[in-house]
Specification:
Layout: E1 13-14, E2 17-20, E3 25-30, E4 41-47, E5 53-59, E6 62-66, E7 69-74, H1 76-80, E8 87-95, E9 101-112
Parallel strand pairs: 1-9, 2-9, 5-6
Antiparallel strand pairs: 3-7, 4-5, 4-8, 6-7, 8-9
Length: 118
């Protein structure tokens, strides 16, 4: 797996995710050194097609920042609670120290049913 740095554009990067029920999952969003992340926050929301929220991650609650990298983590317990084999939507938003908000990644999430239950 590679974690290539992404250039921030006005249009959010579309990344469709295929996840596996019961697994831990991490997604990184890397900002160039030229972007000052001091005082920044981030959030990620997963919702069903009808708009019902499935999961919300925020700073200190599923999202961490180290250097120029935000890491969003969905635990295996959170993943096990998600409905499988349906398409859901997500977006990842960054808010800078001036409170300007930008969606940097968005797409679909589908969770595959786990076969082996430990």
């Amino acid at each position: 797996m590679t974690n290539d740095a992404q250039t921030i554009n006005v249009t959010p990067k579309k990344v469709n995710l295929m996840l596996y029920q019961g697994d831990d999952f991490s997604m990184t969003v890397t900002f160039p050194v030229s972007v000052n992340l001091t005082g920044s926050t981030a959030k990620m929301r997963i919702q069903r097609m009808d708009g019902t929220t499935v999961l919300t991650l925020s700073m200190g609650s599923g999202i961490a920042l180290a250097a120029q990298v935000f890491t969003a983590t969905i635990t295996k317990i959170q993943m096990a609670a998600m409905t499988t084999e349906v398409v859901m939507l997500y977006d990842f938003q960054w808010t800078n120290a001036s409170s300007a908000e930008r969606t940097v990644s968005q797409g679909t999430i589908q969770v595959e049913k786990q076969i082996t239950n430990t």
